[in-house]
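Structure (tokenized):
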């Protein structure tokens, strides 16, 4: 009888224990093969983030997600909003979550849910009303002047407990309905965490923690201006934000063991902490965030300002894989995506509010994603090869990059550096040009992109190159045929020639398929490989030495 009672008790207890599924979603690979693996199948996230209200009713979900699939996305980033999942404390409604998963699955889309919990863009605007109203139980952050903010305090155990309960209940539901299919491949914990109006919280609980000084040991490890109190305050706040998020992630991964990440609003335009969302997972705070929140798989930048290449570079470190969940949706989004994958081996890229963008913008993303999907098939089919990739991204004031690849030098430029497109010189604003460059064998490259031109030289040739002015026909101006012959200026060594430039496509099995040859006017009779602005194609370039 005693044994029977023990067995029954064990069965009752284990009925409420969630055993996480085997790790079926992981960030894997290196170099061009960096990706996420879902149920043994590698993928990169050719993504788009939906606008904040796009998944707040079933009709919108049913309309938007199929359209995203038709536009070439394989992943959608979708808000999961606390106020809609727990409108009454302790009572949960996952109907919108289920609709998102089901419609995504029907349209061969993967989903990244964005937990709009205690904070969204710093504020607690998606916290449920029952939490917002009860400020005694769920206290607010406070400025130094004593002004309460629409920001739940990260120092409140009650806020954390309520947030964590809602988050883990959501994850338990996802595990129940999606534990085998893994339509949901990543989770974002909160959204653009950070303090505004003040660099840190000055509530009584925060002041007590500040005085205790546990966080101060991190100051010496940070590249911050310690003479500016705002940056000291930011380090303090970052420590406690990271601690909060870590507790969310630890609890969450016990239920659904998939990659978790946090995103950051950039500290741009000369702003100081509190002017931008202070203490979020910013690059200068990585030592804190990486050490204090180890269950967060990566920190991701949301990039809306100029200087795209500089922002991405800050987030590529030995312990941080690049993922761009939000980027300004614009005419340049397509080439920025190609650059991000090629240069940084990112696992995903997503323009924001892609569901609201006009076709004039989304078409560039669709074309770029088509190229990137093709390249990824080739990379996976040739995983045993020594593949190396680079990314190109050019603008009017940043129009050239030189890539040294062993003895080969690739001088890459914006397409409008060529003389024959009138938009290059008529005062038009140059759209960005960009490409993914993949070395597939010695003296053999794939170039996938738009608005670029690439010249191939040996190191010897490049070092001896002379600048020659050309006319609108691409030929040298009179008197510009090159340096006058002399003993000390005689050419030494050998040159790199173009055997052929072919436009190609990649089939479903990752094999290169010939489309057409471009050895004539299209490559200026063997002088370069180029893709015009507005065209999106893959070129296969084979070189030879002479």
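Design, position by position:
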């Amino acid at each position: 009888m005693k044994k029977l009672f023990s067995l029954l008790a064990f069965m009752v207890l284990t009925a409420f224990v969630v055993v996480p599924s085997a790790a079926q979603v992981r960030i894997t690979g290196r170099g061009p093969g960096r990706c996420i693996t879902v149920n043994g199948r590698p993928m990169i996230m050719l993504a788009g983030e939906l606008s904040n209200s796009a998944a707040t009713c079933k009709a919108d979900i049913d309309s938007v997600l199929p359209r995203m699939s038709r536009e070439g996305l394989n992943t959608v980033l979708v808000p999961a909003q606390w106020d809609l999942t727990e409108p009454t404390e302790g009572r949960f409604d996952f109907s919108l979550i289920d609709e998102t998963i089901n419609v995504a699955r029907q349209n061969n889309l993967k989903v990244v849910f964005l937990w709009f919990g205690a904070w969204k863009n710093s504020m607690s605007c998606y916290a449920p009303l029952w939490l917002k109203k009860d400020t005694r139980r769920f206290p607010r952050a406070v400025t130094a002047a004593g002004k309460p903010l629409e920001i739940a305090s990260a120092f409140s155990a009650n806020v954390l407990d309520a947030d964590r309960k809602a988050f883990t209940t959501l994850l338990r539901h996802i595990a129940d309905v999606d534990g085998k299919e893994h339509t949901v491949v990543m989770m974002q914990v909160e959204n653009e965490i950070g303090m505004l109006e003040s660099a840190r919280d000055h509530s009584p609980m925060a002041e007590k923690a500040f005085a205790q000084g546990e966080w101060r040991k991190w100051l010496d490890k940070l590249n911050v201006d310690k003479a500016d109190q705002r940056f000291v305050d930011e380090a303090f706040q970052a420590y406690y934000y990271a601690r909060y998020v870590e507790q969310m992630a630890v609890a969450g991964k016990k239920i659904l063991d998939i990659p978790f990440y946090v995103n950051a609003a950039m500290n741009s335009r000369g702003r100081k902490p509190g002017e931008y969302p202070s203490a979020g997972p910013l690059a200068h705070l990585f030592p804190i965030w990486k050490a204090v929140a180890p269950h967060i798989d990566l920190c991701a930048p949301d990039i809306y300002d100029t200087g795209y290449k500089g922002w991405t570079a800050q987030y590529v470190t030995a312990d941080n894989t690049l993922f761009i969940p939000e980027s300004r949706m614009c005419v340049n989004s397509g080439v920025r995506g190609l650059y991000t994958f090629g240069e940084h081996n990112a696992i995903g890229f997503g323009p924001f509010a892609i569901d609201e963008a006009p076709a004039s913008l989304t078409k560039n993303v669709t074309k770029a994603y088509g190229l990137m999907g093709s390249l990824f098939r080739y990379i996976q089919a040739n995983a045993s090869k020594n593949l190396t990739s680079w990314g190109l991204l050019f603008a009017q004031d940043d129009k050239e990059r030189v890539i040294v690849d062993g003895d080969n030098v690739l001088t890459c430029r914006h397409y409008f550096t060529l003389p024959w497109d009138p938009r290059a010189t008529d005062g038009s604003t140059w759209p960005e040009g960009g490409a993914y460059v993949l070395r597939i064998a010695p003296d053999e490259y794939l170039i996938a992109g738009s608005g670029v031109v690439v010249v191939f030289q040996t190191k010897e040739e490049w070092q001896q190159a002379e600048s020659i002015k050309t006319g609108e026909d691409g030929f040298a101006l009179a008197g510009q045929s090159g340096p006058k012959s002399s003993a000390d200026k005689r050419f030494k060594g050998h040159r790199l020639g173009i055997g052929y430039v072919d436009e190609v496509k990649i089939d479903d099995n990752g094999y290169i398929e010939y489309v057409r040859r471009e050895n004539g006017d299209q490559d200026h009779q063997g002088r370069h490989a180029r893709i015009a602005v507005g065209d999106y194609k893959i070129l296969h370039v084979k070189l030879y030495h002479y």
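Reviewer-requested clarification: The chain has a mean pLDDT of 92. The radius of gyration is 27 Å.
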